[in-house]
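so im writing up the methods section and need the Fructose-1,6-bisphosphatase class 1 record in one place, dumping it here so i stop losing it
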Amino acid sequence: MSTPTTTLPTHDELATPVGTTLERYIMRKQAEFPFATGELSQLLRDIALASKIMVREVSRAGLSSLAETVGPEGETTAPRHRLGEEAHIRFVRALTNGGECCAVLSEARPDIIETGNQDGKYVVALNPLNGSVSLDFNVSTGTIFSIYRRVSRYGGPARAEDFTQGGRAQVAAGYILYGSSVMLVYTTGHGVTGFTYEPSLGEFFLSHPKLTIPAQGTVFSCNEGNWFDFPEFARSFLTTCKERRYTARYVGSLAADYHRNLFTGGIYLYPPTGEWPSGKLRLLYECYPIAFVTEQAGGVAVTGATDVLDVPPSQDLHQRVPLFVGSAELVRELQAAAAAAAA
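--- predicted struct ---
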């Protein structure tokens, strides 16, 4: 009988890099900007840290009653779940401890949250746990965030105008998707980059260096249960999609539905309805950041006839707007129909 042999890894195999971590990527990109001082990089690290904690919490939600509802939907806040509260606390705490963020606007609270870092140069608007209403059913959820450089006086408290500068004033935006794998996707205005979480190492690794959305797609994502409340231009567009035999895909979590269409091409629709005549999604921490990512990926985001990033914010920090976002050709087709209907 021959003795089994063990093949040891070669030097070249051992030398193969594991990959580029988020930390290393951030440092490399910071070095490309001679006037960068590191605050924005630290903010992205803080967001990534909080998301790693949420990976653990989301994975055990069914065992720890974190999916339970603890508060009803309000005028400015979504239905509150224990895990949503956990996400709010984790992200606010990480941004507070990081020191670069002077205030946070969260979907979970009606008012601006001061971090105590009054010399911080940035403010962050976020939906801590998008899609939490579906936690009981093991549906993918996400965190959506938007970062602005403050315009109020350093050394003092943040003000509403720090968050209402408009969509094109964002310096960074993105989302984290908690699904079969966890991904962090973000932009600083120079394209869109995706990172996938490796749980055994506790690190996000660069997996998609330059994400672009296909110009055309064959997927439409919306809640067709609201069909009879949709404006005529939206119903007409969706009828055309069905006549073309496009595929309907709808999870009910903006981060999850958008993420799929970012990769495959398609359009996500949340038109105004009778219950939500101004739209349901929040402008500052859902529509603006998704629109920023979309434009940087080559797609389009509109509220109807108007590009989302050109919508002027009101004084309502939880302002709602309609959202149509995805592949450029599909969204521009819908936008033309909306403009014709408004004429």
